[in-house]
Amino acid sequence: MTASSLSFKLAVLFVIAGMAMGIGMAASQDHSIMPAHAHLNLLGWVSLFLFGIYYERRPSLDRSRLAMIQVVIWSIGTIVLTVAVAALHLGYTAFDPVAALASLIILAAMVLFAYFVFRPARDTAASPTVRLTPAE
Ligand code: HEM
Question: Tens digits of per-residue pLDDT, 61-117?
Fold first, then answer.
């Protein structure tokens, strides 16, 4: 499996969970876990899908083990942060260090992604976009 296909699959699972959480909040009229819902959707759906698009356009990076590791670390961090933020907003203050740890995991995954973006273009250059010109 490539990093992009893993990103897309996990992103879809995260947004289904995030939407279910949103529907649960709306139905119960209890929005106390709203920050967890927002983080799950923005880290798990939006950001992960964007990573997938970036990787898909760079085939050699997409097939690399390091890109796969980035997606896995990001996803684990997203799950742990979502649970910890929800628990915190439900009054379980003991989850504070868990949220702090998760935030560092996510930061580490973003620093790894930044390395992909900034390292020399030789390894990471986007594949040329196919341009179709209409026949005259
Ligand atoms: C079935 C789909 C969804 C439902 C039912 C839903 C429901 C909700 C509800 C009830 C709130 C709390 C609003 C408040 O207390 O002011 C909320 C907040 C939020 N949702 Fe969703 N949501 C859905 C999907 C999404 C998606 C896909 C995203 C992001 C891509 C998203 C991002 C957010 C954000 C960022 C907030 C916080 C807004 C704020 O700070 O005022 N939601 N959502």
Answer: 999 999 999 999 999 999 999 999 999 999 999 999 999 999 999 999 999 999 999
Q: Whose CA is nearest to atom 36 of ligand 1?
A: 38
Domain borders along the chain are 3-119
Cβ pair 59, 127 in contact under 8 A: yes
Q: How many CB atoms lie within 10 A of CB 37?
A: 22
Place of tokens 């260090």: 97
Q: Is 16 in the pocket of ligand 1 (CB under 6 A)?
A: no
pTM of the model: 0.89
Look-up: residue for tokens 């196919």?
130
Cβ distance 52 to 2 under 8 Å?
no
Residues 6+ apart with CB under 8 A from 77: 43, 102, 103, 105, 106, 108, 109
